[in-house]
Amino acid sequence: MALPTTDAVPVEPPAPGRGTRRRALRFLTGWKAVTGTAVLLFYCALALAGPWLAPYDASKRSSDILEGPSARHWFGTTHLGQDIFSQVLVGARGVVVVGLVAGVVATVLAVLVGVTSGYLSGAGGEGLSALSNVFLVIPALPLIIIITSILPETTDLTIALVIGLTSWAWGARVLRAQTLSLRKRDYVEAARATGEKTWRVIGFEVLPNLTAVIAASFVGTVIFAVLSEITLAFIGVSSVSEWNWGTILFWAQSQQALAQGAWWWFVPAGLAIALLGTALSLVNFGIDEFVNPRLRGGGGGVLRAEDGTRARMRLGFTPVLPDPRRAAPTAHEPTPVLLEDKS
Fold first, then answer.
1. What is the 3 state secondary structure string of 78-117?
2. Which of 48, 58, 290, 337 supports an S-S bond with 87, CB 3.0-4.6 Å?
3. Spacing of C-alpha 329 from chain mean position
4. Domain extents in the chain
5. Residue 44: its H or E element
């Protein structure tokens, strides 16, 4: 018996690299991720070019004492006549460098300890887990203050290394929990059964599925590092001769800028800190939406019935679409409507 033949339509394969680029740009489809990334890139550019863009020397004194914002001094001056706008521009480099270096160091340690302790079994995995537990219960900021106070020199790089070496435990615990869930998956078991080496299974089977968690851990560590750096400078632990936003707030507080009505002395640095924290938070929210499809579009979407009827999904509402196979509604059968969820 001959089988009926059908016309085969050749399908052209996608261009190489097109899907990869599309997946790479999918993260930037949400407004949170786009806004946060744009602000972060602006801060990075400011950290690189800030000292050259500053109209004055940040430490240079002048006769313009405690002057408010003007065309000559955009953010006003200090009690010594120093230009605050120049101090904000120069201080951006220290904050960004400390945040990025500490985030990279803490993330690398968290990945090494967390993924290794989650994948390995026996004394090695339990020992690494115990080490992360010890660092997890140690108060990070007091430990950072003690370490930086006994060091002979506290530069931005030193503070970044200290923050990174003391703030990796939380990320390691999260990665360990995720690795414990992944190591029993079928594809990991299949790779192990084919004789793949441990480092190759971890690097090519486990780590790609932890990318979003690692990125979120990095962003959280950068936020903590920036706040820690500003806190150390504000309380006078780090060197007050190197300008950053915490140093500006330190001098404003020590000279009682609020009591003198010099609001321009601390408001620009505070707004710069708040904007940077907001940008990092938006990037973190964008990562959450990229990982969790339920968060994309705030629960929005459009449902389409067989007859072409559409209903837009909204949070708090349950759309009800008519069944085209049923007869038209009679007088005793009401037309389906959108039901509001009162819970």
1. CCCCCEHHHHHHHHHHHHHHHHHHHHHHHHHHHHHHHHHH
2. 58
3. 52
4. 27-296, 300-343
5. helix 31-53
Q: State the 10-residue block means of pLDDT for the chain, 343 residues long.
A: 48 46 59 87 89 86 85 88 90 89 93 89 83 85 80 80 88 90 85 84 85 86 88 77 84 87 89 91 80 55 61 53 55 53 50
339 φψ region: left (φ > 0), alpha (ψ -120 to 50), beta (else): beta
Task: Round to whole Å and give the CA distance between 195 and 39.
Answer: 46
- Using CA atoms, how far apart are residues 52 and 66, in angstroms rounded to an integer? 24
Tokens of 53: 């863009």
The number of angstroms, rounded, from the C-alpha of 327 to the middle of its chain's C-alpha atoms is: 53
Token pair listed for 56: 């004055």
Euclidean distance between CA atoms 171 and 120, whole angstroms: 18
What one-character DSSP code corresponds to residue 29? G
What is the DSSP track for 187-253? HHHHHHHTT--HHHHIIIIIGGGGHHHHHHHHHHHHHHHHHHHHHHHHTT-S-SSS--HHHHHHHHH
Cβ distance 44 to 279 under 8 Å?
no
Between CA 265 and CA 67 the distance in angstroms is 10
Retrieve residue 94's tokens.
């220290």
Q: Do residues 268 and 85 lie in contact, with contact meaning Cβ atoms separated by under 8 Å?
A: yes
**36 token code pair:** 């946060």
How far is it, in rounded angstroms, from Cα 309 to Cα 321?
Answer: 7
b or e along 155-183 (b: 16 or more beta carbons within 10 Å of the residue's beta carbon)?
Answer: ebebbbbbbbbbbbbbbbbbbbebbeebb
Question: Which tokens belong to 183?
Answer: 């190591």
Contact 168, 107 (CB under 8 A): yes
Closest by alpha carbon to 32, among 289, 221, 212, 272? 289
Of residues 103, 106, 99, the one with CA closest to residue 230 = 99
Backbone angles phi, psi at 301, to 5 degrees: 150, 170
Measured between alpha carbons, how far is 217 from 174 in angstroms, rounded to an integer? 9
Which of 254, 64, 59 has its CA nearest to residue 74? Answer: 64
Q: Does the structural domain 27-296 have CATH classification 1.10.3720.10?
A: yes
Q: Are 226 and 245 in contact (CB under 8 A)?
A: no
